[in-house]
Design brief:
about 55% helix, elongated, 2 domains, about 425 residues, alpha/beta, abc type-2 transporter like fold, 6 strands
Amino acid sequence: MNRFWAIFIKEILQIRRDPLSLCLLLLVPAFLLILYGYALSYDVKHLKVAVLDEDRTPQSRFLLDSLFQNPYFDRAGTISSRAAADHWLKRGDARIVLVIPHDFAARLALGRKSVVQALIDGSDAMAGTVAVGYLDALAEKITAQLKTDGEISGHDGAWPSTSASENGGARAACPEHACGELAEPVERIATVPWNNEPIPSQHPYDRISIQNAGGLIKIEPRIWFNPDLQSAHFLIPGLMGMLLMLSAVIATSLSIVREKERETIEQINVSAVRPFELILGKIMPYLLICLVTALIVLGVGYFVFGLAIRGSPFLLGGAILIFLFAALGMGLLISAATKSQQVAFQVATISSLLPSIVLSGLIFPISSMPLPIQGVTLIVVPRYFVSVMRSIILKDASLSDIWPNLAAMIVLGLIFNLLAIRIMGKTK
């Protein structure tokens, strides 16, 4: 029994000498529970909606009021033509573009069905599917409300007041200078089949949805970039970010600390090797390995899942290099700041794997997270990379559409690498 207590006390003393491991064991689980407890939510809220109101009548304003008086939709702005929708959806400035036709109020007054078109960004398959359901429910609710109030047939001419919504989206109609003629339809649009039975049309991929046969307001969704809302096309660009982040951070996090444990770091410190040369030499082998991994993921996505790259391959390659610059820098920073491979591996796993899944927008929409959690995602590198990959691969985005995300990754990469160089410089 005395031998047991001797070993027990010895282990307690060793734990006290390693406060970082003790903090990881005690504080990190509670922190992750709070962080991901708020972040993990399948609710899709605050979808950004751009509006093209050609009607500009009290009836159209009432529709917009009803839309923006709930937490699921936020008004992103007003567009002047259908052609502008492509720009808004590619840049991610809006998830939905709502087009109210010029005869919206006139058709309602005659008791006829009025079709409102919703252009939906399908690069996020889950959000796109939920958005279609929300808009469908909204159309039914407004139609029922108007029928109950007698506002569609035999009404007294007074429509419900257009009070301002909480987010200010419906405080005013479309400004006179911001609404123009409807442009020619933009290509690459297809509709969602509600009953899984495509209806013949002029284009083989253009399938129109049938819903609310007795309803007077019909939302016609048109899904862009991922017409069939295939989850594989939505997940693979994001999974590339998770896999590359995991490989880059964990591999490089063990590189310098391995030299410390083997006590070869002293030989490097007394040599003529400069800190930035050491960092560069440690990064390059893993950079090449991660590039091969990226090619494998893209190849599997194309040959197995039929995911073609619609954007520029050169822009895609540049984005991957920028991402790896930031991810490898993060791994080197962890390696330089820790003293053992065990601690480095734990920190690398916690800081790369879980955030890549939960806080990057890979599965859970960032817009639905609480504001403090959204602030935390600003330092998560995969958040920007997932958005860039989906924009290039699915949307054929240009540099002007994705440069803010690329700039954010460059800034984070510089911070991580400069901090690693500084820490290594202090140890020389």
